[in-house]
Amino acid sequence: MKQATDSGVYMLRGFCNSQAGQDKTLCVKYSMVYKFRIRVLQEGYQIWNEHNSTVHSSMEALLFYHHLFPIRDGTYTLRFDPDSGGAVLCVTHRCQILKFRVVASMTADNRREFGFHHLPTVPKFGSLEEFIVHHHKNPIRGSSADGDIILKMPFQLVPRCQQELDFQQISLDAAIFTTGSVAAVSNKVARMRSGNFLVLRRSQQPLLQQPGESESTDSSAAAGAGVEHSLVVRDDHGSVKTFRIVERDTDLSFRPQKTFTLAERPELVTDRIEKMVHFLCIASKFLSPEITLLVKP
Known about the structure:
Blueprint: E1 10-13, E2 25-29, E3 33-40, E4 45-47, H1 59-68, E5 75-81, E6 86-93, E7 96-106, E8 112-116, H2 128-137, E9 140-141, E10 148-149, E11 153-154, H3 158-168, E12 177-178, H4 182-190, E13 197-200, H5 219-223, E14 227-234, E15 240-249, E16 258-262, E17 269-270, H6 273-282
Parallel strand pairs: 5-11, 12-13
Antiparallel strand pairs: 1-2, 2-3, 3-4, 5-6, 6-7, 7-8, 9-10, 13-14, 14-15, 15-16, 16-17
């Protein structure tokens, strides 16, 4: 932290399971390194000093709050709410951050609509983008004390939240997940059409050391070694290709508690294997130039 050059850089201590005996602390770099103890209550998480009485439902919500505050009135952002499956709209207004729950409901013709949970009479919209644009022009009717609230400046782009919501709607056919040996699954995929695939899921066993990797006696490295799953695909030329998806525990006491990394393209990391597969189904040629599109068998 002392070597950090930018103000606002922060680190967390005591939130990994391996640090269970340490105080939970938020360290922030400004002209010096400031340390804030985090109190874990039954209701949630709170910065433990006389200036912060707000209790946040999760550690993610606490960090999100302090990223956003203080910024000028009308600055807003959306964050995905895993508990409700919807979103939370956070808006700065009169030196406070107001939060509004946004719910996604289904219409009679099986389309999603977005609207405020506490204002059922306000119009609903087919996407979060339409919802946000509307409230740039039309005020959100707050309480008499709050007054009307107008959205002015996004702190975080809406598509990020939209993407999280879309991922929650993924319902992959259980038939794409299988067990057994790589050879047996490869033989099965070889009889399918080009683009078809299966995901070979492994039980919780240590990841084998790859050739060329040095051995390590570090217990934390061993804990993070992970479990290797296989994505077996028939490419456009009829050949069967195998890609490795590595599942690791993050050792965090809050989400995400697992990550999934595509070994051949380590820049792709998700917190669910379903997200990984969904992305690869819509990202043409991401895996290989010889694989145009993944198709569910």
